[in-house]
């Protein structure tokens, strides 16, 4: 028995060593391709600087669909196509205005309408303003104190969280639900402190959600820059009875036709098993969405470019999907799932990049225990590439709707410290993205897809 | 015997758990202090935006000495003082000019004199130009081909290295030794491609070293931007006989008096055992040295501020040293070591931050096996703070001269991807530093110093 154990150990050890060496070489090839021969950075340059912002239903979004489809067509994939999806069309209109009226003095603030918000009356809106720090505080104040007021949500993101997404998650309810809840209590409008950890002058937009409140009962919602929020709060302490004037002319139109952009390399052994890699092609309208999520789109496209460059033919079908409308509806992600069900497709793996184009640190994994352990066991392969984080957690909004018993879903986790400096703001532009960091992210994604493809899904 | 093992295991386990909990709490306190109550970012803002560049011997360097000493004096330390050190004084002079003369056309290039370089003749210098990729290639060409030429060193940093410092290390010989070696072969001057991984229009300075070549035999050396190098190389292929004109008026003066800035908290148990934390206060003259190494200075000062804030009294003496003249002489580091020897000081630990103020990733450790293992064993404590790299390697230039049998030396390793976008160039400015990343670096440094102080040096 001892002999057979030794033999098994030798054999097993031998196989492991061989597999390691092959995988190690593949990752080397992948990183070399991405760092010396990538297209993702020039792709992003075009998306950001030539096309610009890509809000669902905008000309920019239309151009981005055509451009990325045309670029995928240059890669020699087996299929490139568009998938129809109806999307909301919300337009910001004129530059928003806000000031605090203190006697004859006007103190102005940088604001922007929140995505999906209704407009103020054409001449604007002026009312006393009430600062609160949470939805709970609002509810406790009740209708008597809230009615007729503009509610100012001013809870900052908590800097004590090491990962900024946790600070965002514990703060964003003010933006997403503030207008709905304040409206129920008779407020006239809400102003929300921008989801930004640093103090600056840029208001950050993002979706606000009225739920099932009737259109005519919805109240306008705007974001104020963090410096603006500090100044407004201070001014209100000095002048509690001051009134705020603000004006925005945003508008929601009928839904319009748009597209998810899809390209694929058919699997050489299991063409029916699908691995998805993607990001979302739409962006908010203030910057050009370079980090959110131009970066994720071009990184996903780059994965296929890398495989073509290094001559790797995946066993399973590898499909890139550039989802439309993550920001204000997730219609692309939902439609993709609907069509997938209709066609009885078998998705085994989905990987999304939607946390910015910063230095990659690891992966956030939604999987059963066996698959989580399998992926984590590859950490030594990733060590030379400074990828060290393998944690359980949320993968991505666009791949969220994809559900099956066996699917493994993963989100790329880049360094998060700078993300909310740019998120949904006018400075989310091409110059904020570093070429190498973008390419390292694409290589980490390609490496994980390679390992998944080679070593399969634990059952 | 079994019982005693179980008992020992329980006791040992218990002690470990207790120690972990105490250390875990200390790291929590340290990070909270740094992320909510730090002074390092406003300190850097002043150093960068009010004082500006701090080349050894400049007014900026003098102001920085006075400013940081005054700031240390506000922290309630046990000692704050200046340590005299004589430093070189090199001055850039007028903006440098370079163009390629192709017939009647002049193609201009962004250049800057390398630190320590001699000037061209007052009217400039014009000569045929010869491109090489390495010192070896230069030597192989020999005097016959080199004499009377301007040598253009154009080997780019290799993007395949995952860590950019490795790419720098394998490339910087062109800058540091190019002029010396080309001069020996009769070249008239050298132009060196900037040590920058990206293509842009900024020339990056840095020290060039003539060795023991007599002053009158030294030839001028300048850096050219990466875009400039690409254009120059292409132009030379089209016009091999074109000549390059360039002019620079830099000058070296007599050494002047400057200072290392020192502050300390006397150890409560072992005042004679010294732990040093530091960075270098001087910078190059083109930007304001925010990453190199304003960041390291204010992070080092912040370590003492954190300990004061959380009420931690180190057992060993904790000394912050802001070294003068790292960039072109390391006189501060050498003088510190000389004085330390003269005073029979006992340094047990030195930690330097001189790799930029980016997201911290880990530590580069110079220590014997036992100490390396001890420090590495703390990695689980650092895991919640995304510090994952504990590797053997170079610690820091300024603490380099400190040598003793038992000293452990460590360098903070931030994410390196963006560092050479800014290094020694005009864009190394305050806006390139993120507040949280800077603070996280300071917290990582304070955490390591705390653990060293508590858990001692393995013997």
From TrEMBL, chains A, B:
Signal peptide: 1-19
One Pfam family it belongs to: Peptidase_M28
GO molecular function: carboxypeptidase activity; metal ion binding; metallodipeptidase activity
GO biological process, one term: proteolysis
InterPro entries in the record: CPQ, Peptidase_M28
Subcellular locations according to the entry: Endoplasmic reticulum; Golgi apparatus; Lysosome; Secreted
Top-level division of the source organism's lineage: Bacteria
Sorted UniProt keywords: Carboxypeptidase, Endoplasmic reticulum, Glycoprotein, Golgi apparatus, Hydrolase, Lysosome, Metal-binding, Metalloprotease, Protease, Secreted, Signal, Zinc, Zymogen
Broad class of the protein's primary localization: endoplasmic reticulum
Domain Peptidase M28, first and last residues per copy: 260-446
Cellular component GO terms held in the UniProt record: extracellular region; lysosome
Subunit annotation: Homodimer. The monomeric form is inactive while the homodimer is active.
Name used for this protein in its record: Carboxypeptidase Q
UniProt organism field: Flavobacterium sandaracinum
């Amino acid at each position: 028995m001892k002999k057979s154990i030794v033999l098994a150990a030798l054999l097993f050890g031998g196989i492991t060593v061989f597999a390691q060496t092959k995988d190690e070489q593949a990752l080397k090839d992948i990183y070399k391709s991405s760092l010396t021969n990538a297209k993702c950075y020039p792709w992003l340059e075009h998306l950001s600087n030539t096309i610009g912002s890509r809000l669902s239903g905008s000309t920019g979004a239309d151009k981005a669909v055509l451009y990325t489809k045309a670029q995928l067509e240059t890669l020699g994939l087996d299929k490139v196509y568009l998938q129809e999806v109806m999307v909301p069309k919300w337009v910001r209109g004129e530059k928003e205005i806000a000031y605090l009226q203190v006697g004859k003095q006007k103190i102005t603030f940088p604001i922007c309408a929140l995505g999906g918000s209704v407009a103020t009356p054409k001449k604007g809106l002026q009312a006393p303003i009430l600062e609160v720090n949470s939805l709970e505080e609002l509810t406790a104040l009740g209708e008597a104190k809230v009615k007729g007021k503009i509610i100012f949500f001013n809870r900052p993101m908590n800097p004590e969280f090491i990962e900024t997404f946790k600070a965002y998650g514990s703060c964003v309810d003010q933006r997403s639900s503030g207008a709905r809840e304040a409206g129920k209590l008779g407020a006239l409008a809400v102003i929300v402190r921008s989801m930004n950890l640093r103090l600056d002058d840029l208001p950050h937009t993002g979706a606000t959600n009225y739920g099932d409140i009737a259109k005519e009962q919805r109240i306008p919602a705007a974001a104020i820059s963090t410096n603006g929020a500090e100044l407004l709060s201070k001014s209100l302490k000095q002048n509690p009875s001051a009134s705020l004037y603000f004006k925005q002319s945003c508008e929601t139109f009928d839904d319009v036709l748009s597209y998810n952009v899809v390209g694929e390399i058919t699997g050489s052994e299991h063409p029916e098993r699908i691995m998805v890699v993607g990001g979302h092609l739409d962006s908010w309208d203030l910057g050009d969405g370079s980090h959110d999520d131009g970066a994720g789109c071009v990184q996903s496209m780059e994965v296929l470019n890398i495989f073509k460059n290094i001559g790797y033919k995946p066993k399973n079908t590898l499909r890139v999907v550039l989802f439309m409308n993550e920001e204000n509806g997730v219609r692309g992600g939902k439609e993709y799932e609907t069509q997938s069900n209709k066609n009885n497709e078998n998705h085994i793996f989905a990987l999304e990049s939607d946390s910015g184009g910063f230095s990659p640190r690891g992966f956030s994994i939604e999987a059963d225990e066996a698959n989580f352990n399998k992926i984590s066991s590859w950490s030594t392969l990733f060590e030379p590439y400074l990828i060290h984080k393998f944690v359980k957690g949320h993968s991505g909004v666009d791949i969220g709707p994809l559900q099956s018993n066996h699917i493994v879903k993963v989100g790329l986790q880049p360094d998060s410290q700078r993300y909310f400096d740019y998120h949904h703001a006018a400075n989310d532009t091409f110059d904020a993205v570093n070429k190498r960091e973008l390419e390292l992210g694409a290589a980490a994604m390609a490496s994980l897809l390679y390992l998944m493809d080679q070593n399969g899904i634990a059952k």
